[in-house]
Every structure is written in C-alpha cells, then in structure tokens.
Amino acid sequence: xxxxxxxxxxxxxxxxxxxxxxxxxxxxxxxxxxxxxxxxxxxxxxxxxxxxxxxxxxxxxxxxxxxxxxxxxxxxxxxxxxxxxxxxxxxxxxxxxxxxxxxxxxxxxxxxxxxxxxxxxxxxxxxxxxxxxxxxxxxxxxxxxxxxxxxxxxxxxxxxxxxxxxxxxxxxxxxxxxxxxxxxxxxxxxxxxxxxxxxxxxxxxxxxxxxxxxxxxxxxxxxxxxxxxxxxxxxxxxxxxxxxxxxxxxxxxxxxxxxxxxxxxxxxxxxxxxxxxxxxxxxxxxxxxxxxxxxxxxxxxxxxxxxxxxxxxxxxxxxxxxxxxxxxxxxxxxxxxxxxxxxxxx
Amino acid sequence: xxxxxxxxxxxxxxxxxxxxxxxxxxxxxxxxxxxxxxxxxxxxxxxxxxxxxxxxxxxxxxxxxxxxxxxxxxxxxxxxxxxxxxxxxxxxxxxxxxxxxxxxxxxxxxxxxxxxxxxxxxxxxxxxxxxxxxxxxxxxxxxxxxxxxxxxxxxxxxxxxxxxxxxxxxxxxxxxxxxxxxxxxxxxxxxxxxxxxxxxxxxxxxxxxxxxxxxxxxxxxxxxxxxxxxxxxxxxxxxxxxxxxxxxxxxxxxxxxxxxxxxxxxxxxxxxxxxxxxxxxxxxxxxxxxxxxxxxxxxxxxxxxxxxxxxxxxxxxxxxxxxxxxxxxxxxxxxxxxxxxxxxxx
Amino acid sequence: xxxxxxxxxxxxxxxxxxxxxxxxxxxxxxxxxxxxxxxxxxxxxxxxxxxxxxxxxxxxxxxxxxxxxxxxxxxxxxxxxxxxxxxxxxxxxxxxxxxxxxxxxxxxxxxxxxxxxxxxxxxxxxxxxxxxxxxxxxxxxxxxxxxxxxxxxxxxxxxxxxxxxxxxxxxxxxxxxxxxxxxxxxxxxxxxxxxxxxxxxxxxxxxxxxxxxxxxxxxxxxxxxxxxxxxxxxxxxxxxxxxxxxxxxxxxxxxxxxxxxxxxxxxxxxxxxxxxxxxxxxxxxxxxxxxxxxxxxxxxxxxxxxxxxxxxxxxxxxxxxxxxxxxxxxxxxxxxxxxxxxxxxx
Amino acid sequence: xxxxxxxxxxxxxxxxxxxxxxxxxxxxxxxxxxxxxxxxxxxxxxxxxxxxxxxxxxxxxxxxxxxxxxxxxxxxxxxxxxxxxxxxxxxxxxxxxxxxxxxxxxxxxxxxxxxxxxxxxxxxxxxxxxxxxxxxxxxxxxxxxxxxxxxxxxxxxxxxxxxxxxxxxxxxxxxxxxxxxxxxxxxxxxxxxxxxxxxxxxxxxxxxxxxxxxxxxxxxxxxxxxxxxxxxxxxxxxxxxxxxxxxxxxxxxxxxxxxxxxxxxxxxxxxxxxxxxxxxxxxxxxxxxxxxxxxxxxxxxxxxxxxxxxxxxxxxxxxxxxxxxxxxxxxxxxxxxxxxxxxxxx
Lengths: 346, 346, 346, 346
What we know:
- 4 copies of one chain form a homotetramer.
- The first copy, chain A, is an alpha/beta fold.
- Chain A contains 12 helices and 15 strands.
- The longest helix of chain A is centred in the middle third of the chain and has 17 residues, at about 145-160.
- Chain A has helices at about 15-25, 40-45, 60-70, 75-80, 95-105, 130-135, 145-160, 195-205, 235-245, 260-270, 305-320, 325-335; strands at about 5-10, 30-35, 55, 85-90, 110, 120-125, 140, 160-170, 190, 210-215, 220-230, 250, 280-285, 290, 295-300.
- The first copy, chain A, folds into 2 domains: about 5-140 and about 305-335, Rossmann fold (3-Layer(aba) Sandwich), CATH 3.40.50.720; about 145-305, Dihydrodipicolinate Reductase, domain 2 (2-Layer Sandwich), CATH 3.30.360.10.
- In chain A, the strands form 2 sheets. In chain A, strands 8, 9, 10, 11, 12, 13, 14 and 15 form an 8-stranded mixed sheet that branches. Chain A has a 7-stranded parallel sheet with strand order 3-2-1-4-5-7-6, sandwiched between helices.
- Chains in contact: A-B, A-C, A-D, B-C, B-D, C-D.
- Chains A and B meet through strand 8, strand 9, strand 10, strand 11 and strand 14 of A and strand 8, strand 9, strand 10, strand 11 and strand 14 of B.
C-alpha cells in the first residue's frame, strides 16, 4: 500500500513536532513543511541538514532564505498539490484562511486548537471520538489541555462511566524560549468556565463539566486537577487500574522523584527524547484521592507535544487508514514508541 | 474596663503583623514582642523608633543587640509575666516548647498553624467556631489557606448549608524577601489530600472535604479554587449575595483590573496599607460558576496577613471579651478597618 | 512664603508616588492629580477618602467615574490653571503632547525618563547637575536606573574624580502587579550600549561610560554592577567612606541579612514605608572590590520610587526655591525622611 | 590503537552528559557509570535499554535496583578496575574521598569544579592550559562559568593579548527539574570577588580579574558580561573576528531571534541535540561594545553541558592521546560535532 502523503503548514512549536511525528509513521510520508520566514526553527532545520523540504507561504521573502543558503522547494500551493492531507499549525486564525487553499486543491486538513470549531467538520480526539472523524475532510484537534484531560476522563468513562467533572487548570503561561509572552511573579485568573471544560462537553456530550483556569509563571507543562463523579463510585484502586492500562497516560510517583512538571521534563530529556518532549501525560499516583462518590487526581500536560499523537490519529481517521479508534491509536502509538515504559514497572 | 495585655513570641513575618494588629485594638495593650536575634525585622523595629518593647528569648545573644544600640526590656519570661495572653508565632515546633513557659506562668496562648493540633485545647477559626474558643486557655489558629478557605465555606454554609467541598490550592511557594526557600520554573505536587481539606473537616465536621495542593513560583498570595455542594442548589447569585455581605471577603472583578494575586497586592500597597497587606481575602466574581448542583469559585489568600484578624478574634474568645462570635469578630473588624470598602461599590 | 503649587499628570506607578512625595513637602502644595480612567490606582485613591483632588484628562469618560461615585474636580486644563508646575508622569510619548498645554498656560513642567530628551531644556539629576535646572521651564528626569547609578558615580566623582565606568544592568522586567509585560524563566539581552550608559555621559560629560543590560524575571528592583576608574586609585575604604555619607545611598551588608533586591523590599515594607517603597538605593558593602586601578560594586534600584526625590529636587531647581543643589536636595531629603538611618549604625 | 577505557562516577546532571560525550569519542570506550540509588536518571537509563553498564557505589541498596529490574554489573571498585581513567562527577566533596579508590587502583581521574583545587595536580582548561595536563594523574576542571568565560578571554588573549577583565555573572540559580534549590522573584548578591574571577587568574596568571555574581531565578543558562582590556586596543571587529573562529563559541545575533538564554536552549532542542544541550557558549554580536581601550561583551553559559568538551580534552591530555592542545581539542570537537555551524553563516 502506498504511503499517505502529508504536509505541514506553519513550522513553529507545534509544526516542528507534527513533522517529526509524521516522519516516524512508517505508513506516511512527510512531503514537506511550509513557513514564512527564516525563523530560528527554520535555521535549526537547515543546520540539521534539511531532513524535510521547505516550502514558502504567500508573502514570504524568498531572498531572506537565499541569503542564508537555505534551500526552498516552491510555494505552499506546490506543497498542497503533492499531499493527501495537510496538518495546519499556522498561527490562530490563519488556518481558516488556509482552508480555502486546501478546498481549492481538494486536500483534507487537520487544524489545531487555536482555530474556531466551525473551521472543521469534526472536533476530534483520537480516543474519545475517533469514529466521528473517519473519512471526514476537515478535523480540528482539541487543544493541549483538553487533549490530555480527555484522555483521563474518557479512560474512566469507558471503564466505569463518568457523569460529571470539575477541573482546575494550573496553566503554564509560556513555552521555553518564548519572549513574546510571560508573567513575572503573578498568578492570573481567567473568566470561568474555562474553554477546556466547555470543549470536553462538546467531545463528550454525556458529561457535565466546568472549570477554572489560572495562569502561572512556568514553562514546563500545565497541571490539571480533575474531580470526577462516576456513574457508580470509582475507588482509587479502580481509577489507578484504568489509568495504568492507558498507553498515553504515564502514572508516576512522588516517591520516585517525580515532584512536579519540571521532573517530567527533565526525565524526558534524560530519556533522549527529541527536544525533551513526551507524548504521554503524567498522572501522579499519590494525587488520587476519593471524596464521597467522587475521585480527584492531578495530571501533567506537556503542552508542546501532547497533541501530536491525537493529530496523527486524525490523519488515520480522515484518510480511513484504520476505521476503528482502537486500531488507529495503536498504530500511532507503535510508530511513536508510546507505551513502552508500561511493561517496565517504572 | 482595663485593657487586655498581649505579648507576641517570635517577631517574624506573622509576629510583626500580629503585633501591629493588636496595637490597633483599642481594648488591648501590646506589651511587647520577643525574639532571638537582631534580624532585619528587629532592625526595622529599631529604625522605626521602637514602637514596641523588645524582649529576648532564651539563648539570645544580648551583646549583638547592644552593639547595634537596640534596646531590650528583659527576657521572654519577663514579658510573659506582664501579659494576659501570648500570641505564639515562633517557628513551627517551638511553640510547643514555649507552652511550658506559658503554663508555668498561668497565661493563655494562641498558637499559629505550624504547631501540631494537640498543642491546644481548640483548633480555632473566628467565624466558624468562635464559641468553642470562649474561655479556653490554648487555641491554635487554622493556617493561612485554611483560614481564608473557611471564611467562604462557612459563609455559604450559614446561608444555605454546605455538604461537601473539593479544593485545589495553587500555593505561593515563598514570601517576598524569602531566600531560604523557593522554586524556579517548576510546579510541585503534594501528596493528597491536602492538610487544608483535612483541617476544614476538623473545624466543620459536617462537611466532607478533599483537595490537592500544587506549589507555584510566586510570592503574592495563594489562589484556591473551591467546588462546593450545597444542601440545596446554590446559584451564582445566591453565592455572590452571601459573599458580598461577609466583611472579610472582598469580591473583586477581572473587568475592574483585578487580574490575579499580584493585582490585589498592588492594590493593597496603593491603599497605603502597612506592608501592602490585606486582611480580606479576594474572591473573583467572574470565577463563580455553577455546575449541576455545585458551585465553583476562586479566592486569593494573602498569606502574610490573613490569619491576623482570626487570631485577634481568638484573643477575644479566650479572654471572654465577647462571648459571641458575631460580636467578637465585629470588634476585631472595627479596629482593623475591615469591611469599609463594602459600602463603596468597589 | 506661599507654597509652590504642584499638579501631577498621570496617576500610575510613578504619578502616585510623585503625588505622595510632594504632599510631604511642607513648602509645596499638591493641588491635584489628573488621569483618564477609574483604574485600580484611582479606585484606591477613592477608597482612601480622596486625599488628593482628581481631574480628568481630555477624552476621559466622566460617566465611568460618576457611576462609581468617585468625585472629580474638572479637567486637566483646570488643574494646570491652578499650579506653578506640573509633574508629568503620563505614559511615554504623551508628555510631549501635554507640553503644549503647559506652554499655553505658561506653567513649568518636569517630565519622566520615558519622554525624549528634546521635550525639555535640561536633562536633570538632583545631585549631578542641579544648578543647570535652576530657573528652567522644562526639565526631564533621568530614568530610574540612571538616577540611582548617577548617585553613586557622582558621589565618587565629587570625592575623588571618576574617568570611566562600565555597567551591567540586571533589570527587573516588570513591577509588582504588572500583567501587561513579563518574562518567564528567561534572561533577555539588549543591544549595547545601554541607554543608561549613554545618559550618564549626557549628564556627566567628563566621564566615559558603556554598559550592557539584561532583563530578568523579577519585580523588586534592578541590580547594577558598576566598574569605575578613578582619576586616582579609589580603594574600597575610600569608596565606602564616600558612599556612607550620601543620604540617598543606603550601604547594606549581606552579613546582616540583606541578600538581594527582595530583602530590601521586605525591609522597606517592615519599616512601614508607604507601599514598601524606599527612596534610597541599596549598595552592598561586600560587593565592593578593587581591581588594579578600578573599583567595582553592586547597587539596588527600587524602580518605582527612586526618581521621586530627584523629581522633587527638580521642582526646587525650576522654581528657584533653592539655587544650590546642596540646599535643594537637603530640603527634599528632610521632608521625605531620607537619611535618618545613617545615624543608627544600621 | 586500542581505545582508552573510561568510567564515570556519579550519574547526575553532569555524569550523564560526560557518559554520553565519551560514548561519542571513537578513540574511547565508556566502560560504565556508577551511582548510589535508582534515581530518575538511572530509571531513564533503564528505560532507554541500558546503553551503559551500571555499577554501584559503596552503600548503595542493591535490592532497590533489583526490585525495579535494573541490572547492575558490580561495585564501583569493579568499574575502576576496568578503566584507564575515571571522570568523577560525584556530589561536591565526595570526589576527594573517591580519589583514594582511584589512587589505590592506580587509575587517573578528572574531577569537576565542585571539588577543592588541591584534589588535583592541575586545574585544567582544554584551551587555556592543555599542555599542563599532559600526562598528569589528577586534573580538576574549571566550573561551568569559568570554562565558558575562559574560552573567550583565552581567545582574545591568544589573538591580541589581554591584561585585565572584570565580569558580572548573571547566574541561573537551578537546573531544569531541580526541586532542592530555587529562588522566587528575587535576585541574590554574592560576596565579591566571585570565585570565577579568582579561578580565571589561577588558569591565566598573567591576567588580572575581578567580578560580581548575582543569582537570578531562571534555569536555562548563565549570562556573563565581560569587560576586557587588551595589551593593545581591541576593536569590536577584532574581537568578532577572533570569536567567529573559535569552535566552541557560537556568535549569535539578537536580530536573528536569539533574544537571550532561553532562545539558545530552544534552538538546541530544535536542533535535536540530546537533552537540548549545547556544547558551545553563545556570544551576542550586538552586545560587543568598545569603551575607550576596553571591549565589553555578553556570553551565555549552558551550565549542564559546557564542561563536557573540556573534560574530554582532559582525558586526551592526561592519557597523552594528543600532546598538543590544538590537536586534542580538535579531536574532541570532531567527535562531538562542535563547530559545524561555523561554515553555515548561521
């Protein structure tokens, strides 16, 4: 079977990781990436020896690339003409404009969380509603927090049934290397309910959800506390059993040295993962606590990389590579090396 | 009526504020404060012209004070001999040792949250269980987070009845000026349930509580999200109505510019409050959100000053100055200037 | 003698402190302050009981003030009509526009460091070039870092002669309470030379200066390291002797507990200073070190308050209240309570 | 020629990187690493499939490793018995104790900057005094800041002669993932002169040096400003020409997007470097500024990885693999891939 051809629009924090993730899928071919300017990400691509071809979006200053000796392969339209599906990780709002190009060329596309829901036919999560994306032309991924959150809520829901969740998102305010946004010695409260709670209800309409988001001055991953009410009482042991089985949830222990989001980042660096990324979310065993009928726990969301697996799931669904979620996500996991630690008692 | 005579043991972050708070009570007399070494706090006391007399705890190096010209009035035992009640804000664990001195001298004492519960006869909160402290010899105050949290839960409970709460504490990890502790670009998760949830159940045994605490690298106040389940459904309007009436809760709005904990600190500085302190907790109107039968909201805990009013309430209870909580807290509020903003539409 | 009448345009971080500082001058009268909107600073003014009259700048929405019950006294033009001199602390660039109003009304004005130099007749520093400001109509103050830096360089220069300085500014990136700017876990380098070095040469043209500025994610004061080359060798003892005599330099010691910028902020809070402000810069005794002919030292710049004394010096110069710098600065110091600690051995 | 056999004592932040760096040297063999407990670093080694053998230091709890299924190969003494040279990256002070084991076994060793100078025969820097280390038994590496700093001072010195430097170290206070140390919203001043200035004079005795160090709450690399006085005037062009030629100095530009230490970390992550590490120091072109006879510039020190190349140089010197510094450092650079970017105009 021939490989599915994939292009990436926007070679930023997410775009770089989408490209790397697709390149690891043995049944996909990364045709190229498109960007606007010789950013640091593009310079790094060049310094690495151009593992991916680079295309230019409309308005890009080709001379700036030429001056640095960075080779380009044509326009973004050229790229679109060579692929089956585009992954759009352009800045928020640009994706909606790019969609016109995709439609004109008759290629499918998957948008990231920064776009409005109506850009797509389906608001998609690889585990929670894979089947809804099968064969569709335009998908939109859940945002980083929602993606990780739903992994756990869907996990409990499939095992035991979930009626209701209330979340507190302790949000990282910037990524490592960001200079265009930041907080200094301040927590910042958002208007409630947080969009993540609302989005969860869109993806899982049978669950009632609310939540509050507070920004914090850190860069290495959000932490979300989740209070979930099961259809029947979910004990700590039941929750742990379900979480332990999920390939994209890494249950970690304070007692082992995983003290917070920065421990997980350090661990991923020491694993040799590219960029120190981790596809799994962390979930602290010692944070799980029962309260009456409810169960509460804390998870870590590695914001830069968490949506990569579910986006690749989206390719599988949209392109009908696998028609069942279980098979599609398993293929993604296999090629990304997700879930290997599960057998190691770590 | 003669004034109640009060001493303070430990002139640190809390001790300084206790002394200042007591000095504002027209029916109390601050006899003096006791400390160990010419710390920056003691030097500041000296530079201010010694508004309070200073006594030395056992083991203090008097020569160090003399060398700087800082006058001292005697030993901590001397201080204890002159007072009706001691406020003990010594470092955690020292209070239990100090208690022997208080017992020997037959004076009452109020301990701070760092001591173990068994140091005292009553674990005390000015609003939630004032009457339990009336006439008692040894009280222990709830910790800063628990003090502020209980203000809101007790407020809802008295108005509508509360059955259950689940909290997420986004904890400031250090106070301004702390160099002995700190986090840098990291969130840190604690073992659940947090002691604040457990403490709440001790004070309010009819409420079921759990919670998770996450440390964050900021200094200007904790933020707690609270999910509360009422005996009957509590709407946003009902919650707001109750909170607006509570003298020690300041309802603020994102729309007015109160974006987070640092806005409240800045506002308190601009008010001219000593040290930029605030006795009230902040509660964001736009954070209040209903979810099924539950109500969720976010509060700000000014960790350095929040326990001062309830500690002074404790004096009133222990010394039987007022036998009813409503009267005791009202007197404290009057002398501390708490609640004035309520009438201003701010 | 009648008091000099002063107005303040822009009631933000600097404007609030200018107003408070002027109000403490017994030979000046603060007529009022002007602002645009019911900001948190204005609300705090109202909650304090309107110690100053409030005027509205053009374009202000009076209805917004009325709705909150905040009384206003008229337009900024009304304010200008009642004063001898305006202190302009409007956002950068607005001062140049306001100047037209001042010129039309024939009142003098002092601008803050955010305006361009050509807005004023003299680029002013109370200690380094007071006499140049005497009788002038329009002064511009040096910025916060430059103001503090020049205190020390001028101090050494008057005592021993200085030929050359090289500075490294470790800049706080935001003020407490700022949510519109911030850095998270990042240092940021500016193009060299820093404007502060250039500005120093404008004020002290006989000194050669250069420097590099690096932004850091903190809020409680800049730290500057200064390498100075004297006309003759300046020893540590000589430097210390000169610094100890300067009223606006507070020599502090690591050994006493002043570990960094946050210690000084904490100390100022504990002193009971309004907002925890300090007018003096800190200078660490243990940072002073000789290197060949050079002397190196580190200072702390309390960015919110450091320019207040020199701005008030500017009023004295412009209004010819004192024609000599020594007399003008002494009067400012007396009313602001600067230098009292000098006699205390602290 | 047979490969030089190398062991690593202490598998922490530095030890992991030493092991990885040695493993890339085609003329060396990494025999194994020794540690005490199944730390996160050891767990990551296990999760990676044990690319290196693991030995246990005295007092290690073997059962804890066995329980996790982590294979061990014997004691640290066993490891020492199999190698020609040990790289000691044990916690500060332990190296001196380990030395007894090395001496007993007759193997050479290189200690990291945390040990006292007298642990070694030579205080070593690959570029500044390679020849002094040739054939020696015990070397001690300069610390991370000193290593990077000396690269630039030695670079200028060899090109033009340097007489004097004054440095300001803007120090990162913790590494990513550290929870045992940290600062929150504070700068901290150290007693001057900083040890790095003193160490520079030990390595380069003909240069006079002083400096001040200030700790800042960030994790991604120190920034040092250096003021250097040449034997003759060094212009910006001259400095830049020399820096551009140095393989371990990466000249970067603010204009290209390298805004600070976090940009360099992000870039190294995007390059795909293991752990996002960089062996080169960064040096900002726009920070270079002349002042009279002096030249000033700012550099970035990636604290986790900067000493790895010079430590490997040390192996080459101690083992007489190359007797000349130029050859030894060139070999290290070749195997670590250092300097490739030089030809790319980046």
